[in-house]
Amino acid sequence: MTKEDCFYLGRIVAKFSFKGEVLIKLDTDEPELYTEMESVFVEYNENLVPFFIERSYLHKSTLLRAKIEDIDTEQDAEDMIGAELYLPLEQLPQLPDDKFYFHEVIGFDVIDQQYGNIGKIVSINDTTAQALFEIDKDGKQILVPMNDEFIEKVDKKNKEIKVITPEGLVDLYLS
Question: Which helix (DSSP H) or strand (DSSP E) does residue 130 occupy?
């Protein structure tokens, strides 16, 4: 299994007990969807290593408290802190047609109401206060905020996102 076949689930942030339990900070708005996992891939030395989960449940509603098979001591759990967790893409919950996961829209054309096709999405920048579509238009980069007010329609079948950008935004990049 490679990272390209998986999605980032979260990170082990702390040990919980002397019996090897860990706390996992899940990267999701719906942590309850992941309380019944049987296994998870842990990134170790740039490889994804499968681990089985003996039991897990939500801890203070935002963290997942988990007992991972073969992690039996406080020291074992300590060694896992900071490890990133992944699951296969096919385990992502289905979203309604008007919603999308970031990885799904890479390569989609962006169709602006005023300018027409303004390029292809090459990545999503989510390191800023508001996530941005990074769009390539003939070698020029266009950044469009991923704001519900700007996204008119997501057409997964035709791999297009129709947007209504604020006056002058696209001009900043194309002039």
Answer: none
Residue 86 has which token pair? 């992944």
173 assigned to some structural domain: no
pLDDT in tens, the chain (175 residues): 888 899 999 999 999 988 889 999 998 878 888 999 999 999 988 899 999 999 999 988 779 999 999 999 999 999 999 999 999 999 888 888 778 888 889 999 999 999 999 999 999 998 888 899 999 999 999 999 999 899 999 999 999 999 999 999 999 998 7
Task: Note down the domain range covering 75.
Answer: 3-91
Residue 20 zone, left/alpha/beta (φ > 0; ψ -120 to 50; rest): left
- Looking at residue 24, which CATH number applies to its domain? 2.40.30.60
User: What is the DSSP annotation of 5-63?
Assistant: GEEEEEEEEEE-STTSEEEEEE-SS-GGGGTT-SEEEEEETTEEEEEEEEEEEEETTTE
Predicted model pTM: 0.69
Q: For residue 144, tell me if it sits in a domain.
A: yes
Could you give the CA distance from residue 81 to residue 17 in angstroms, rounded to a whole number?
13
